[in-house]
Amino acid sequence: MVSTKEGVSLSDYQDVTGKHVIDELRVIAAHVEGRRLQNINSTAVGGGVAEILTRLVPLLRELGVLATWDVIKGDQNFFEITKAMHNALHGKPENLTPAMLDHYRATTESNLRQMDFHGDVIWVHDPQPAALIARRKQSGRPWVWRCHIDVSTPYKPVWDFLAPYVEQYDAAIFSMPDFARPMHIPQFMVAPSIDPLSDKNRELEPGTVERVLRKHGVDPGRPVLTQISRFDRLKDPLGVIAAYKLVRKRHNCQLVLAGGDAPDDPEGAAVLNEVREAAGTDPNIHVLPLPPFSDLEINALVRGSTIVFQKSIKEGFGLTVSEALWKGKPVIAGAVGGIKLQVINGHTGFLVHSPEGAAQRAMQLLADPGLCRRLGENGRLHVKQNFLLTRQVKDYMLVMLALDHPAKDVVHLN
Ligand code: UDP
């Protein structure tokens, strides 16, 4: 079981969200407290799912929901297969051979033998552990498939392989309505969220920000364009470099590409090499491979940035967008998936479709600090209203309640 930090104080969240938000959480929690909510995913570190669970589990426990978190085990081959599956669900044609599918099934069998399914409700995240649903009948409890991927236009053969597993769940949760699938099970929409109190997002002293920039050779006196992401082709780091090179012709700016890898993403090293090659010897491009748990460092890099990119080609949500908006940064991001929930074009940032588009928007922002400020203020408010952890905790508890009353359209809380 993954252990997460206990002792989160609801009153600390109250200072950020207002009392009414916390009062509402307590009212709902009274109906689900004491319940065991078992989360299962494929990595304890790296990527958005682990990021969310690290914060969500302790806050649920603070509210009396006995949330736990387990991670499946798999070898390199398994994670290569599930990464291909991940890419295919995002729409990329990937040939999963019968041998690969057999290995996926065998790894599932091995996890089924080793894992303890103790939850009163079991929340399985993404495709890697999806086939664990084989245990549902025996457990006699509700199982929910929590999908963080944009599955709106999947590569059909791979979705056809996964769908029979998904359809055995009691419900599925997607990050936005566009991702819903034609299926016979109930589907809920819950957007992801960020924790305003985590090291990744809390306020920092300006001195800390400057120290981190200088440590990495970044000059705080010149504009800094940044993208924080795992080195993954779907995050389009090469497109970011192409955009930067166009901006650089007019502005004396710097580019930071920072990101670590995740144990369930075996493509990271190859993509990092491609990025290094594209960066060449430009002293103003800082490619920073970060170790896990670099949260304060990432926080400082974003706070020290003039503009934050998230130029994804496909994206389930993109927590990095909310993380940047929360810090009042103007964001230039790919007009894809859950990014479109966060970047309201021209209001909280700019949505783009190409490196040229990204460069043009960056140049517009660099020439207009007032616009940067306005977008940043709007962005922070947008995150406060929609993408803080407290809202996601509320939604998850409401899904638990809805599962308790499968035949009802309305559940009264008094
Ligand atoms: N992140 C991190 N270290 C890195 C790169 C990313 O801690 O080196 C964090 C990032 O701040 C965000 C999460 O990992 O909280 C990535 O989530 P997102 O939804 O943006 O993308 P995913 O990696 O899940 O596709």
The strands making up the biggest β-sheet line up spatially as 2-1-3-4-5-6
The pLDDT mean sits at: 96
- What is the approximate shape? globular
The CATH architecture classification of the largest domain is 3-Layer(aba) Sandwich
Helix content: 40-55%
Radius of gyration: 21 Å
How is the main sheet built? 6 strands, parallel
Please indicate the percent range of residues in DSSP E strands (runs of 2 or more).
5-15%
Number of domains: 2
What would you give as the CATH superfamily of the largest domain? Glycogen Phosphorylase B
Give the low-pLDDT segments. Answer: none
Question: Distance between termini?
Answer: 35 Å
| N-to-C SSE string, H for helix and E for strand | HHEHEHHEHEHEEHEHEHEHEHEHEHHH
Determine and state the CATH class of the largest domain.
Alpha Beta
Helix and strand content put the structural class at alpha/beta
The CATH topology of the largest domain is what? Rossmann fold
Bound molecules: uridine-5'-diphosphate
Can you describe this structure?
The protein is α/β, with parallel strands linked by helices and 414 residues long. The protein has two domains: 10-193 and 388-404, Glycogen Phosphorylase B (Rossmann fold, 3-Layer(aba) Sandwich); 206-386, 3-Layer(aba) Sandwich (Rossmann fold). The protein is 44% helix and 14% strand. The chain is built from 16 helices and twelve strands. The model has no long low-confidence stretch (mean pLDDT 96). The site of uridine-5'-diphosphate has 17 residues, from helix 3 and helix 12.
